[in-house]
Amino acid sequence: MEMSLADCWGSAPASPIGFEGYEKRLEITFSDAPVFADPCGRGLRALSRQQIDSFLDLARCTIVSQLLNKQFDSYVLSESSLFVYSHKVVIKTCGTTKLLLSIPRILELAAELSLPLLSAKYSRGAFIFPGAQPAPHRSFSEEVSVLNGFFGGLKSGGNAYVMGDAFRPKKMWHVYYATEEPEQPMVTLEMCMTGLDAGKAAVFFKNSANGGCSSAKEMTKVSGISAIIPEMEICDFDFDPCGYSMNGVCGPAASTIHVTPEEGFSYASYEAMNFNPGSLVYSDLIERVLSCFRPSDFSVAVTIFGGHGFAKSWAGGAEAGSSYVLEDVVEQELPGGGLLMYQSFSAVAPGAVSPRSTLDDGWSSDGMEAAAQGEDTCIWGVEKKVAVKGVAAA
């Protein structure tokens, strides 16, 4: 009997220390199907719940809540989130999930819908409990090997980058990217926060005497999450005895938050994607997110396709105010005219002064800079390498 990829990798060990908050994020994009194969243009949104469950089962997670609109389908998972657009699927899973094991099933379902593969992007921070991760997530090199097996044949080849300061391994950012052709204009923000303020974290404990909330909706309001992007319609979920997840939707834009509030390994993540970058002030959004959690350390990764004119303020560095000091900043060009900017911050010690970030704004665009200029609504329609501090090495 032929063994599946999942069978080959075995079972996942549980961490004896605490829950792994850092997510693995996988984004796979497809091109249009022939008109005769998909006359309504539904693409991946034509997948049934049973078909979606079939690849989530391989990743070791399940759907606990959902929120759908005209542009895409949003699912809160037992371990993070899933977003299904007509031509793109984005999965974030935390804990000891086996996210990469879902790839063959996703590609199989897309092939059944006659959707040609366009690109793939995988990203994650440095795990809090790396020793508890199961195969194929025991190391970034192992993950890259699996990803290259599926996406290394795309025109760009597979490109892997480790970004950050090698002397701060806990703050390294890992990215894999492969593409067949340049991406459509889009900005994606990923934030990872650790060492949450105890009072802020207490909100995400159910029925706690220290300020906990009894429901997800109460957590969303009391924490300030509902005010980050007020236009977002929110689907939230609380875990027992603690923990929180939410997905926000507005037109084609999505946001998501996941919180592990336990002391000693507290963690929160924030993501926003597919929004109109001219309608959101980068530094203001960062401050609203930070005010919900007040972490001791955080990182920001911004991926841009479409050039400076499209990305507007997002093509510069994040500003975190006087409460945080910028420790590291890396800019990395991606195949297909993309840019990835990674920054890490730490809280300023009492009495210290945080210097203002001064970043070079010299990244050249690929001729798509005029896209979306003048739009002012919140949402709009639309060979392996390793890099340390953005310098690629063979």
Automatic annotation (TrEMBL):
Matching PROSITE patterns: ADOMETDC
Gene Ontology CC: cytosol
InterPro entries attached to this UniProt entry: AdoMetDC-like (IPR048283), S-AdoMet_decarboxylase_euk (IPR001985), S-AdoMet_deCO2ase_core (IPR016067), S-AdoMet_deCO2ase_CS (IPR018166)
Keywords, sorted A to Z: Autocatalytic cleavage, Decarboxylase, Lyase, Polyamine biosynthesis, Pyruvate, S-adenosyl-L-methionine, Schiff base, Spermidine biosynthesis, Zymogen
Cofactor binding remark: Binds 1 pyruvoyl group covalently per subunit.
Top-tier EC class: lyase
Active site (record annotation): S80, C94, S245, H258
Positions of substrate binding: F19, E79, F239, E262
Pfam families: SAM_decarbox
Catalyses which reaction(s): S-adenosyl-L-methionine + H(+) = S-adenosyl 3-(methylsulfanyl)propylamine + CO2
Ranges that cross the membrane: none
A molecular-function term among this protein's GO annotations: adenosylmethionine decarboxylase activity
UniProt record, GO biological process: plant organ development; spermidine biosynthetic process; spermine biosynthetic process
Pathway recorded for this protein: Amine and polyamine biosynthesis; S-adenosylmethioninamine biosynthesis; S-adenosylmethioninamine from S-adenosyl-L-methionine: step 1/1
EC number: 4.1.1.50
Name of protein: S-adenosylmethionine decarboxylase proenzyme
